[in-house]
Specification:
Elements lengths: L1 H4 L5 H13 L16 E2 L5 H13 L8 E11 L3 E7 L6 E8 L10 E13 L2 E12 L1
Parallel strand pairs: 1-2, 4-6
Antiparallel strand pairs: 2-3, 2-5, 3-4, 5-6
């Protein structure tokens, strides 16, 4: 009975369906990192909680180091050398920023709205502590 349903005339249709189904696993550009791989998802929090969490990340970095963070904000660069994601508070008057390093090296334009996922860490330069998401990817 199976042979009657899937005869030679149906092969092109079956091949087409397999191709379409396999394309679901291939994306254009960056794909979204699965939620289960993210420790802190700032994109699901209210603006007040986001701002408070980022302030805590900056104030107590040891508590967050090594965690995977997803954040959405405005991309800025400092003299084209470092790139940061700015997150504004609920009123839009204050901003906190965290530097990020993309794995593919393709940085967005300044003022672009971005979503970044990376591993939170710090580094020291000139006696100051800096905050950065390393091994970061930009989600679309």
């Amino acid at each position: 009975m199976v042979r009657k349903i899937f005869n030679k005339a149906h092969k092109p249709l079956v091949l087409f369906m397999v191709l379409v189904m396999s394309l679901q696993f291939v994306g254009c550009g960056s794909a979204k990192v699965p939620d289960s791989d993210v420790d802190i998802d700032l994109t699901t929090m209210s603006s007040t909680v986001v701002y408070s969490t980022v302030a805590a990340m900056i104030g107590t970095p040891d508590e967050f180091r090594g965690q995977t963070v997803r954040m959405e904000g405005t991309s800025i660069s400092t003299h084209g050398q470092t790139h940061s994601c700015l997150i504004y508070d609920a009123l839009g008057c204050c901003a906190e920023g965290i530097e990020y390093e993309l794995t593919d090296g393709k940085y967005p334009d300044d003022e672009a709205t971005i979503t970044i996922v990376g591993t939170y860490t710090t580094y020291t330069m000139g006696g100051k502590i800096y905050f950065v998401l390393v091994d970061a990817v930009q989600e679309k």
